[in-house]
Design brief:
CATH topology of the largest domain: Rossmann fold
CATH superfamily of the largest domain: HUPs
Strand order of the largest sheet: 3-2-1-4-6-5
Number of domains: 3
Largest sheet: 6 strands, mixed
Number of helices: 16
Structural class: alpha+beta
Number of strands: 22
Shape: elongated
Strand content: 15-25%
Radius of gyration: 31 Å
Distance between the termini: 55 Å
Length: 481
Amino acid sequence: MATTRGRRKEPLEQRILHFIREHRLISSQPKLLVAVSGGPDSVCLLLILVKLCEKLGIGLHIAHLNHQLRGAEADADAQYVSDLAHRLGIPATIEQRDVKAYQADKRISLEEAAREVRYTFLVQVAKSIGANRVAVGHTLDDHIETILMHLIRGTGTRGLGGLQPSSLWQASGNSLTIIRPLLQVSREETDSYCHSHQLTPRIDASNLLLSTLRNRIRHQLLPLLKSYNPRVAEALLRTARITGDDLAFINKEGSRLWGEIGQKQGKTISLDKESFLELPLALKRHLLRMSIEKLLGNVRDIETRHIEEIMAALTKPAGKRLSLPGGLSFYIDYHQYLIGQDPAALAPFPPLGGEFQLKIPGETLLPGWRIEADIISPSVVKGEPEGDNDFTAYFDLDKAGDKLVVRSRQPGDRFQPLGLSQPKKLGEFMIDTKIPQAWRERVPIVCSPRHILWVVGWRIDERVKVTEDTKKVLRLEFKRR
């Protein structure tokens, strides 16, 4: 996002037009929502977009939200925006929301609550006017402050990129593209522009308070850093630009690899373990963030420490689980990593939820399953019965009996897998055969009154196998429905 010296000499409107076109910030939709707080930055943005709207082929709509945090001052801001919209002849939606009530309900910081309420409001207004983008007044100074804020909080590579010309806001199933046409314009320039147009924007006194991190960075840290390096702002912007170039490459590679390694099913994402472990560290981190973003819609609450905790756990044994923000968990299984609120959703088995008597012979319907039971002659069975990963099994009817039930596993279950001379704990069998932990409660177990006959999909019991002495064969087949 570097600006050439020649570009700096151009009129501000022309610079912003170049920036909008260079980054393709305006879509084909005829309406653009403009968030106007009443401060110098957003007022400057509005005035310039009014001058450019014919060249850009767009109509404007103003949105202003009173957060009900500053009493009469906030009411005056809303009135100022209303008067400005009327003077410019631009339609406006001006509303208020109780941010403190939202904060108390969600138990988040006031800053987070204000941001979430504000963007939810902007999504609603954009939908009502048929727009898919909102222009906000973030400036070059905001960009620099954001880089420092992310650095202080322990950001990853993405955070060092600071603010981007456009980004996607997603929450509660809604999305909105945020564009920042002033990202190469300083606050000093926006003040000067408003002054040259005989406008006196509103000043938010809360921007002077040192209670928020951004304000402390603005009023304390940046002046201090400039005493060490008068050109620290340029250094930070250069870092952000280089980071942006690196991220563009990583994003491209990540998108290419996602189709090979990642799979999203419902509210759960799986990553192929073997392929994932072979990736460079940078791509591992990127795919983890990408996975979480696909599930949550954003990674605002995901800090670098969360990603690093996952990275440190990648080679841990199957069964390891980490808790993440947003109600997500990271699970390690034998052949895959699972991220989601319910990794069991990836299992090829529906939840059973009870014990069910099988109709032999005949058909039995279970939640998600249709089970067919037939009694056949041994001559029909060709070859040895298959065990692993098969939903059809054959049993000696006299040994198995016809009083069979299907249930999920229970504490203390024991089982003599086909080919073994002694029973073993069912839990140990599931570990040995690498049945993913998140699946185990859903695996159907076929039982007689005496013992387990079949761990469906894996192995039958040695004691009920078909032999040369078998007179009648029980055939069971599980089919999904």
